[in-house]
Structure formats: structure tokens, C-alpha cells
User: Which sequence fits this backbone?
């Protein structure tokens, strides 16, 4: 009898990370088996362990050696991510790890080389790849048809990281600010839709106008190898009293114009009626899908939708954007 995702002994390392509650949605909805969680903050580790009915550790490596989990969802301050990933690879433990997996391309490259050498499964949560909307667009529009893409994603103020992740406000620990945290999703999306693994960075403008050591608003202009231009705009500048963030896309093709804004997607194609689809544009809903599909892909011996080569391609472009910002 084939194994089910519910049969896997899972562990979560670094549960103070703000993405973890989104992953836990899949644990609760799909009846997944969590053996243990860890976090340097003992109170946070214990709180999450109590919620899930599992063991708590303050040391992730101690968890790995004591529990020997079948699969790990790994989270850590960005500068600590490479060593955590290498520890998982050394133990032949398949895992998913949050982006950006370090603070520069060399960090990702080291991890990728180690994972390939030992053939260890690693998934990266570029979650827009798990959107039906993106999948249908990719099926309908060929890469060479894309002329221009503009992505704007502006989230809440940087002060929200003070509660559990102060390291996010220091470039030496996080690698960067809003473009590192938010922009990577849309760098990956631009590469995914155009089929490119490289991009030329034409310009970047980063604004560092707060007391924190990171950019809090940033924009970059890129050109993909297909010729398509890309504008990325990200920020920690959005009051969160009603909605969490501002998420807007415009994609220009040789035959149409596509717009994503709050709660709708509009498709305008020459010779066809305008199609306006009411939908959630909240990326948070894709994290449980990522968990579920990643575990299935691992059990089926398949590659994840995004893994280390995709992360490295994004990181290389991000490094150049940061240099010019």
C-alpha cells in the first residue's frame, strides 16, 4: 500500500516565522502528523507544540537527531538558512525551506550543490506557481507573446517584524528589505511565465527612509531574455486597517491586456469579450496547497514546482538589483 501524506512524520523548525501559521492550515485541514516543532524562543515553541499536540525543542538540530522526521518544513533568519539546509541535507532529510535561503547567490549555490550531490528533495514556496490562475495563463499565453509585466506588491509597515523577527530589519541578517522579502515571488513569476532563467537589471531605486537598516520601498526595471520588460514595485508602506496589502499586476501581450487587482482578474483579448473574474487575490491561500502538493510530489518521486535551481536564478537577479539599488 502506498504511503499517504498523513503517514509522514513532519517537523517544523523555526515556528516563530510569520509564514508558519499559513503552513499549519494544511496540517489542520488535511490531518497531517507533526512529530515536533522547534524555535529558539521557548515560549513560542511550547505554544505551537501545545496547539499541535507534539514535542517542542529550542534547538532545531537537536530535534532532527532525536526525532528523525520524514520531512521538515524549515524556517530561520535568512543568514542562518544555508547552515540549516546543509544540516538537513547531511542527514538526508527531505525538506521545504522559505525563500530567500540566504543573503546572496553563493549561499543558495552551496546548498544546491550539496542537495544535488546527495539527491535530497528540496522545495521552495514560490506559491504563485500553485495558483490555478497562473497555471491557466501559462497554458493560454506563450512566453514569446508577453511584451511587458508590471507587479506591485506593497505590504504593512516594517514595525510589524519587531514582535518575533527583529532580524528582518537588518540588512546583514536579512539580506535586504521589501524587495528581498516580497519581490522574489514576482521575480520567480516573471521567469516562470517567460521561461527565462536570467534577466538584465536595467535600473533599481531603493528607498531607505525609516530608522530600520533595510529598504522599505523599492522599484526595479528588468528585461527578460525573451525581450519582455518587467517592472517590480514592492514596499513596507501599507496601512493594514482594512486589507493586508496592495497587490496589482498588469501583463501586456501581443494580443491582449491582463489586470489583477483587489478581488478580481480581468482579461482583455482582441476580438473577444472582456472577461472579468471575481476571485481572491490573497497569496496566503496558496501556502496550504504548497504543503499538500509538495508532500505528494516527494512521495511520488517528483520534482517540486520550484526547487533550488529556481531559487538560485531568482537570487542572482536579486543580487544585481540590490547592487543597483
Assistant:
Amino acid at each position: 500500500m502506498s504511503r499517504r501524506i498523513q503517514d509522514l512524520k513532519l517537523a517544523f523548525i523555526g515556528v516563530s516565522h510569520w509564514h508558519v501559521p499559513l503552513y499549519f492550515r494544511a496540517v489542520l485541514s488535511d490531518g497531517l502528523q507533526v512529530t515536533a516543532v522547534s524555535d529558539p524562543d521557548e515560549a513560542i515553541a511550547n505554544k505551537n507544540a501545545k496547539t499541535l499536540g507534539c514535542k517542542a525543542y529550542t534547538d532545531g538540530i537537536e530535534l532532527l537527531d532525536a526525532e528523525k522526521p520524514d520531512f521538515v518544513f524549515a524556517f530561520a533568519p535568512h543568514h542562518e538558512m544555508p547552515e540549516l539546509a546543509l544540516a538537513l541535507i547531511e542527514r538526508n532529510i527531505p525538506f521545504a525551506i522559505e525563500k530567500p535561503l540566504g543573503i546572496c547567490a553563493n549561499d543558495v549555490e552551496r546548498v544546491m550543490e550539496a542537495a544535488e550531490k546527495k539527491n535530497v528533495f528540496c522545495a521552495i514556496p514560490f506559491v504563485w506557481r500553485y495558483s490555478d490562475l497562473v497555471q491557466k495563463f501559462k497554458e493560454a499565453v506563450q512566453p514569446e507573446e508577453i511584451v511587458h509585466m508590471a507587479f506591485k506588491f506593497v505590504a504593512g509597515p516594517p514595525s510589524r517584524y519587531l514582535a518575533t523577527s527583529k532580524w528582518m530589519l537588518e540588512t546583514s541578517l536579512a539580506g535586504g528589505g521589501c524587495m528581498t522579502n516580497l519581490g522574489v515571488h514576482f521575480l520567480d513569476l516573471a521567469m516562470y511565465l517567460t521561461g527565462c532563467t536570467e534577466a538584465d537589471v536595467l535600473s533599481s531605486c531603493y528607498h531607505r527612509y525609516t530608522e530600520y537598516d533595510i529598504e522599505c520601498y523599492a522599484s526595479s526595471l528588468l528585461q527578460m531574455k525573451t525581450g519582455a520588460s518587467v517592472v517590480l514595485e514592492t514596499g513596507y508602506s501599507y496601512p493594514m486597517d482594512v486589507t493586508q496589502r496592495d497587490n496589482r499586476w498588469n501583463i501586456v501581450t501581443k494580443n491582449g491586456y491582463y489586470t489583477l487587482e483587489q478581488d478580481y482578474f480581468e482579461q482583455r483579448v482582441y476580438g473577444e469579450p472582456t472577461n472579468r473574474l471575481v476571485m481572491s487575490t490573497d497569496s496566503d491561500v496558496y501556502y496550504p496547497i504548497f504543503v499538500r502538493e509538495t508532500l505528494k510530489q516527494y512521495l511520488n518521486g517528483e520534482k517540486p514546482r520550484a526547487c533550488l535551481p529556481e531559487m538560485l536564478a531568482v537570487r542572482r537577479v536579486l543580487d544585481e538589483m540590490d547592487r543597483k539599488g
About this structure: The chain has a mean pLDDT of 96.
